[in-house]
């Protein structure tokens, strides 16, 4: 199976980890009753092939379910794995909300890093500094300390942090999915940027995944600066992930 299709299947499996999952025709919907964050409330395509009419009916049902929960209907998918889906969603009233470049790293593409920063993995009872970094960098998506503790304690997240001048400076997470994993929530406090901290954290997290038997790590690179951070440790371009939301 190609890396793109593995990413598409991985997205469907990640949706299955949601607080509540519903299968709606060709979509698997993840709904979180405790949060309206887009990252926790979305749908992904999970089966193929489907006719135009079947997808249109499923999109209408998905819209009804999400709106009934007070959530904006969203569908996220790997564009190159589902090239026919965007036009159908457009006909159903959905519009492109975001598009991010995907990058992947494998044991074969991984590169040694010269980063010298000390990186430590976050324990469930010591999440304070990690949460502080995340909330300073992403105030619009404030992290819940209890949720972070739960995710780490149950192996859903592997989190790492780096310090500089005695202060928490950067943090990031790996979300394992069997042999596949997503590198996510990479955050560096402004005054500590461009010092190689994110690269060091990425290297430590992907190394831990490969040592545990994993063989592919992916991430979404939002801009060229992000690409420059991750290419040195072996990530390479691999398509795009798009999100369509009801207009």
Care to describe what's here?
- With 247 residues, the protein is of the alpha+beta class.
- It folds into two domains: 3-100, 3-Layer(aba) Sandwich (Aminopeptidase), CATH 3.40.630; 119-214, 3-Layer(aba) Sandwich (Aminopeptidase), CATH 3.40.630.30.
- An eight-stranded mixed sheet has the order 4-11-5-10-9-8-7-6, sandwiched between helices. A three-stranded antiparallel sheet has the order 1-2-3, with helices on both faces.
- A hairpin with a 2-residue loop joins strand 8 (167-177) and strand 9 (180-188).
- It has helices at residues 3-15, 52-68, 85-91, 128-137, 145-153, 197-211, 224-230, and strands spanning 20-24, 27-31, 42-45, 74-78, 94-105, 119-121, 158-164, 167-177, 180-188, 216-221, 236-246.
- It is built from seven helices and eleven strands.
- Helix 2 crosses helix 3.
């Amino acid at each position: 199976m190609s890396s793109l299709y593995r990413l598409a299947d991985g997205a469907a499996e990640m949706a299955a980890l949601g607080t509540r999952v519903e299968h709606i025709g060709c979509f698997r919907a993840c709904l979180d009753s405790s949060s309206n964050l887009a990252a926790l409330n979305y749908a992904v395509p999970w089966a193929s092939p489907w006719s135009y009419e079947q997808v249109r009916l499923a999109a209408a049902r998905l819209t009804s379910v999400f709106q009934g929960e007070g959530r904006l209907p969203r569908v996220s998918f790997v564009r190159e794995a589902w090239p026919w889906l965007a036009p159908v969603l457009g006909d159903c009233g959905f519009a492109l909300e975001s598009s991010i470049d995907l990058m992947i790293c494998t044991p074969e593409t991984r590169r040694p890093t010269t980063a010298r920063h000390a990186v430590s993995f976050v324990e469930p009872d010591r999440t304070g500094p990690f949460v502080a970094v995340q909330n300073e960098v992403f105030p619009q998506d404030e992290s819940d300390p209890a949720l972070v503790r739960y995710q780490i304690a149950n192996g859903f997240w592997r989190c790492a942090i780096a310090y500089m001048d005695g202060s928490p400076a950067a943090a990031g997470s790996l979300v394992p999915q069997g042999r596949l994993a997503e590198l996510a929530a990479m955050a560096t406090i402004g005054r500590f940027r461009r010092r190689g901290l994110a690269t060091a954290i990425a290297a430590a997290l992907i190394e831990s995944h490969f040592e545990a038997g994993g063989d592919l790590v992916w991430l979404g690179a939002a801009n060229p600066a992000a690409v420059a951070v991750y290419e040195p440790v072996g990530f390479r371009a691999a398509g795009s992930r798009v999100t369509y939301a009801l207009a």
